[in-house]
């Protein structure tokens, strides 16, 4: 089946998205936790990194040996260059406010926007027809409130410890939780010594100083509300900000809360963000994930999950291209190891879902949710924002909309399942396999929060 035929089939299928979005009106309440912050975003050039590399004596060997913690300006530069050369996204932590200030002064800020998985997810869901969204905020000064969508049904805990619209809250004594998002572009180049590197994929490096979210501070009123009331979904993340013994204790404390939520008739979804501390990552996947119905992850996070759950698989995978063919068997083993009912992968060009036969939504329903996510993600990439319900489907108005089929074609051929190309459905090792080829956006204006947007909308728009 050629690309032209596939383009017609899938373009027609994408037309259901506006109607599918309306079905989110059936949802009473979605809660989002645990990490909400402000992203200070800046786009950098390879030439700037080349200058800094020379100034700080960064060599290819330095990049190969750099750690995943920011304990000096040198380490920050090392991390940015590593991600630039690999075209990958990573988040590294610092406990030193002076280093955070150095990064701010060195790179500056182009814009402020909502950050943290919980905050991004809450804002995206507030644009749909969901009746209520409730988000945990460890810190909530006016500066954070300004990043929330101005919707009365998107709520958090205010300074009087009561539910209030998130955009109106001003907990004046709270410290602004700012994360530094340093973006770079595909095709840009940098020089280390006598060698030039070309960035293979537009991506970003995140440098984080955020002591409250680093303790996974869960508001007591937020906790009690979820324990006392019914809700449809709880989508959460934030383990990527934890480290050391203190972080492990915070993760253990969150597990107690989640065990109690597990008793309720709801869907728990863990967004597996890139987590540098291996002990935290292992605890999250071995102890938190099994409490959940659903996991969302990208190709990098799949590799990191394999490192702690399936070391033999990781050894085979770590030097390979992270495409869907190389990932599919590892994904299956991660699903079986964590015992989640649903696992979703999002990579460039393809969303893939493995779900149990008795999962609450059928393959066609799950595919519909993934189509919605693809349209919204393309809209965000193309225009750089999602501020209204109309924005979610802006990409559908593009008469020259292109859908990317290479990953889907490769997977269908590899699994000997040609039906995937036309229907998006098949069976794999006793599970339902659902795939969606995604809308292609050249030169995306932003990539921040894309995974959170994809995972949350795929989940809640499935019905």
Provide a descriptive summary of the structure in words:
Helices cover 41% and strands 20% of the residues. The protein has 463 residues and is α/β, with parallel strands linked by helices. Strands 7-6-5-1-12-13-14-15-16-19-18 form an eleven-stranded mixed beta sheet, sandwiched between helices. Strands 3-11-8-2-4 form a five-stranded mixed beta sheet. β5 (132-135), α8 and β6 (154-157) form a beta-alpha-beta unit. α11 (278-288) packs across α12. The radius of gyration is 21 Å and the shape is globular.
Counted by DSSP, the helix tally is 18
Q: Low-confidence parts, pLDDT < 50 over ≥5 residues?
A: none
Percent of residues in helices comes to: 40-55%
Shape: globular
Structural class: alpha/beta
As a whole number of angstroms, the C-alpha radius of gyration is 21 Å
Q: What's the count of strands?
A: 20
What composes the largest sheet? Answer: 11 strands, mixed
The spatial strand order of the largest sheet comes to 7-6-5-1-12-13-14-15-16-19-18
Strand content: 15-25%
Mean pLDDT: 94
Summarize the structure.
The chain has 463 residues and is an alpha/beta fold.
